[in-house]
Amino acid sequence: MERRTFLRASAVSAVSAGAMATSAPAASAKAPLRVQFLAYEGVESLDFVAPFDVMSMAAYLSNAVRTTLVSPDKPTTITTSKGMRVEVPHGWSPQDADVLVVPGGGFTKPGSGLHKLLSDKGFMRRLADVKAIKVGVCTGVMALSAAGFTRGRPATTHANAKAELAAQGATVINARVVDDGDLITCGGITSGLDGALWMVERFLGAQLATRIETIMEYERRGTVWRS
Predict the structure, then answer these.
(1) In a domain, 227, yes or no
(2) Residue 62's domain spans which residues?
(3) Which of 61, 121, 126, 173 sees the fewest Cβ atoms within 10 Å?
(4) Which region is the signal sequence (predicted)?
(5) Separation of alpha carbons 26 and 33, rounded Å
């Protein structure tokens, strides 16, 4: 049986399983899931663009998601690691998010966008206080690790950063997406697609997730590991 057909046929059981995976209420038009995507100078383009596109599609199809692109400080224009210029219309407001997505940006390169973010003590203090569900994409997981969220917990990240993630106290799982309740981590770059589709399934159901896969001509890869 073709994969999408199987997933649609098993949507009811998948939704039930997703509901048990989190204590958060299912999103709806009356109570939309508020998802903020952090975009900072030197960020890896696909790390945030891919999940932003998935969640924006979910917003369009269901009216049960609100997506917001935010900078660590105030509205600005950034240049991504690949030279893309992006207008970021909002400053970060942690109290206005149910989910915060933190993308990577050159963990193995000294002076990269991610390292500058990690050296911003004011931002890191605010990040450590976040109560929303945290989603790390690629080496964005290392920012969550630096804030103390991965210590003693299952997590994944880009292959080049897994050793450091383990050294910082995480239990590294070799899965494309790791869901530990209020902490979701994704592997390298394109895994943000899979992480975002998993979020759609978790909060809005398997039927919508597979519909978005069909529209985007993309099939999820690898494993979603759940605690």
Answers:
(1) no
(2) 3-218
(3) 121
(4) 1-26
(5) 8
Domain contains 202: yes
What CATH code is carried by the domain that includes residue 112? 3.40.50.880
Question: For the whole prediction, is pTM greater than 0.85?
Answer: yes
Alpha carbon dihedral 49, 212, 26, 99, in 10-degree steps, equals: -10
Sites in the chain below the pLDDT cut of 70: 1-25
Using an 8 Å Cβ cutoff, are 181 and 227 in contact? Answer: yes
For residue 121, give every residue at least 6 positions away whose Cβ sits within 8 Å of its Cβ, in sequence order, or none. none
Domains of the chain: total: 1
Would you give the distance in Å from CA 193 to the centre of its chain? 9
Question: Angle of helix 206-216 relative to helix 191-204, nearest 10 degrees?
Answer: 140
Chain-centroid distance, C-alpha 124: 18
The beta strands (E) that lie in 45-182 are given as 65-71, 76-79, 85-88, 90-91, 99-102, 133-136, 154-155, 171-172, 177-179
CB atoms inside a 10 Å sphere around CB 5: 10
Give the angle subtended at the CA of 201 by the CAs of 138 and 59, to the nearest 5°: 85
Identify the CA nearest to 106 among candidates 91, 89, 118.
118
